[in-house]
Amino acid sequence: MLHIRTGKLTPHYRSIPLAALLENLYQILLPLSQRKEVTFDLDIDKDVGAIEADENIVRHIVYHILASSLRATPKGGQVRLSARRDTDQVCIVMEDTALHLPEEALANMMNPFPRLENSPLRGYEGWEVGLPLVMRYVDLHGGNLELKSLPETGTVFLVYLPIKPRTHH
User: Fold this and answer.
1) Residue 167: pLDDT above 80?
2) How close are the terminal C-alpha atoms of the chain, in Å?
3) Domain region containing 114
4) Strand partners, 17
5) Would you tell me the crossing angle of helices 18-36 and 55-72 to the nearest 10 degrees?
6) Residue 120 in contact with residue 102, Cβ under 8 Å?
7) What's the half-sphere exposure (Cβ side, CA atoms, 13 Å) at 66?
8) What is the CATH number of the domain that holds 29?
9) Is residue 36 part of a domain?
10) How many CB atoms lie within 10 A of CB 18?
11) Closest to 137 in 3D by CA, of 160, 114, 104, 108
């Protein structure tokens, strides 16, 4: 985190077969979903292809969101990981049927230094520190993170990453 704040983190770009990376993370997290009795679905377009990115950073982005979603989703709920390729970017979608995140919680999550005391996020284990870091990682890759929290259905995370990096810092 310190490296990102000081601008010293330099991504090491190389070609990553995205489907293989996502399938690997799915396999790693499957036991957690089974312990929690949460349905965990994987749906990756066969033509998602490769992206030029820092594999460790992409891995961290997806792992953190999925692990947090699986922890937050109650027994009997569902988490879904999907990915598709657009013209010049890929979209990795992570959806869950966890508790609805209130607007103030979302705003606090987006803050690079979230308040943890009396936070509306109390009870949303794992989100407090991780999401600002995930957002910095996505930003570092020239991508975007969209978050939609729906009162009746849960939360959808959309991570857009360019197929080729737009800028090398």
Assistant:
1) no
2) 16
3) 2-162
4) 50
5) 20
6) yes
7) 29
8) 3.30.565.10
9) yes
10) 23
11) 160
> pTM score, two decimals?
0.82
Name the CA dihedral angle for 93, 56, 15, 156, rounded to a multiple of 10 degrees: 10
> What is the model's pLDDT at position 108?
60
**Average pLDDT over every residue of 128-155:** 83
Domains in the chain, number: 1
Q: Who contacts 45 (Cβ-Cβ below 8 Å, separation ≥6)?
A: 82, 83, 84, 85
Q: Does some domain include residue 168?
A: no
Q: What is the largest CA-CA distance in the chain?
A: 45
CA triplet 47, 50, 155: central angle to 5 degrees?
75
| Mean per-residue pLDDT, 27-53 | 95
Cβ atoms of 154 and 96 within 8 Å: the answer is yes
Residue pair 115/108 in contact (Cβ under 8 Å)? The answer is yes
Token output for 46: 């066969």
Beta strand segments in the chain, E: 14-17, 39-44, 50-53, 78-85, 89-96, 144-150, 154-162
Give the residue among 125, 94, 101, 128 at the shortest CA–CA distance from 112.
128
Question: Is 167 inside a domain boundary?
Answer: no
pLDDT at position 165 is 81
Give the number of other Cβ atoms within 10 Å of residue 96's Cβ: 24
Structural contact between residues 72 and 99, judged by C-beta atoms closer than 8 angstroms? yes
